[in-house]
Design goal:
By secondary structure, the chain is an alpha+beta fold. It folds into 2 domains: about 200 residues; about 120 residues. About 35% of the residues lie in helices and about 30% in strands. The protein has 6 helices and 10 strands; from the N terminus they run βββββββαβββααααα. β1 and β2 form a beta hairpin. α3 runs antiparallel to α4, α4 packs antiparallel against α5 and α4 runs parallel beside α6.
Amino acid sequence: MVGTKNLYLRAEFKEARARENAIVPTFEVDIGLYASGAPSGQSFTVPADVTGFNIDSIIGSLFLRQESESDTIAGFLGFGFPAPTSYMQTVREGSVPTEHTLWFPLSPSTISRIENLRRGAKARFHLELKVSGSYSQPIRSFNPPVLQAGDRGHPVPMEQLELYASSSDLPVPFHIDRLIPATVRGQIQLIEIDKSKWVEEILPGLGFGAWKIYEIPVSEAADLGKVNEYIDQAAKHLNAGDWKDSLARSRDAVQALEPFLKKYANNAYADKGHGTADEKMARLVTSFSGLASSMLDFQSKVFGLLSAGSHPLPAGTTIERPAAEFGLTVAMACLRYVGTRMSEAPS
């Protein structure tokens, strides 16, 4: 009878970096998988002649680790999957580890939140893995000889029984829900990245700094007329690349907000030399509307020239994304200001 043994599958963190040239900011994590008899990792009781594990699937879960948070899975960031260049392999006992690279796509807003929570300290992450695979268990099977008519009552000699036995490997599947990287001594590994490496190498590789993310709540006031509709339309046109229509809807939103801006303007803006707060707000709306109108009027004249086909397009005569972004930003800023002031104003 074949004996059994304890065989352990262990994961170990190797390296972390940013995936350069990726369109989606991607955090790369290298791990190694080991099979050994050392009591660290996931334990399996297997026949003594099992020599390793066949890995079929690895899924990573990445968490931001904060000193003040005792719950290791509180700072969930995202799931990671093997990179296209990472292949599933057999992890053999006593052999070199198999190496795998996991890709964790991170949005710009997620990276910005990591920075807000990191507060200038080391970047520290907690990694957990779901691992599926199998190990091969050798088995012996006996296929009795076909009984012939003249063989009845004639036993098969003992020395011939081996001829009717065969050996094969039976795959035994397994699934590990939580395999946490650990040292050979069983100490859980955190992904710790020095501040210099994080700031100088990884953050630029993740595109941090190319975007500045600020979360400004939208107003939930129901009595602002069509303001929210105008702003939604401006955002849709902006995303579609329709700069002219986006700027027009932003202008409509600011004009619709004018009475609210004047009514809820903070009196701290008033001064003797330049007028009251509501007067200043009125001039702001007039100025912005005039700017938007002049841009749109200029654009219409360019379209007239194009339709006539008598002149080439002059350089710099189209409304481009910066103008649309400016309009939408002003409209949203005015909406947020009015919504906040209305909620704080005495009823």
